[in-house]
Specification:
The protein is an alpha/beta fold. The protein has 6 helices and 9 strands. The protein is about 35% helix and about 25% strand. The longest helix has 13 residues. It starts with a helix and ends with a strand.
Length: about 170
């Protein structure tokens, strides 16, 4: 668990070895946490007003980490056209919704081979992170729950259920 937390801080939010660019809206958990973490780690955080401007900024500033909502991928593919993937990117972070296997494969081929999937909500914050090497194994996998998150599956009477049982997901975050 500790390694997952360090990996999350080092790569997905701190920008690996250079600037990161977030297209996550400020009303989202990614949009709110990105500036805070970048500021405290001394990382340059870029924002763009459009996907076309984002591509220019990635190339101009040598952005190493890019965070997008899954819904922004298709429009970004259209803007990218037949250009090669940006050379500076060391990872692509995605959040906001589930991604199809087809869309994930296209993102790896056209943007960056290392893709991280973050799961959470503005109300709960981040609750899990998944490198896509693990998400390729099981359909619906949402990542490894962060050590500071309490997550249980409960029945209709709010009693915890054993692994593999269907129920309501109960989450508590700090």
């Amino acid at each position: 668990c500790l390694n997952l937390r360090m990996e999350h801080s080092r790569i997905s939010l701190a920008g690996a070895d250079g600037p990161i660019l977030s297209m996550m809206g400020f009303s989202t958990v990614g949009g709110m946490s990105g500036p805070l973490v970048a500021h405290t780690s001394g990382t340059v955080l870029c924002f763009a007003s459009s996907l076309a401007e984002m591509l220019q900024m990635v190339n101009l500033f040598g952005v190493t980490g890019l965070w997008l909502a899954v819904g922004q991928l298709e429009p970004f593919f259209n803007i990218l056209g037949d250009q090669p993937p940006p050379k500076s990117l060391s990872y692509l972070g995605l959040g906001g919704s589930k991604i199809t296997r087809t869309m994930l494969m296209e993102a790896r081929a056209r943007i960056c081979s290392k893709v991280l999937l973050g799961y959470g909500s503005t109300e709960m914050s981040w609750i899990s992170l998944a490198p896509t090497s693990t998400t390729d194994m099981d359909e619906g996998f949402a990542g490894h729950v962060f050590p500071w998150v309490d997550l249980e599956v409960v029945d209709q009477e709010d009693r915890p259920l054993p692994p593999g049982q269907d129920g309501t997901i109960r989450v508590r975050t700090p």
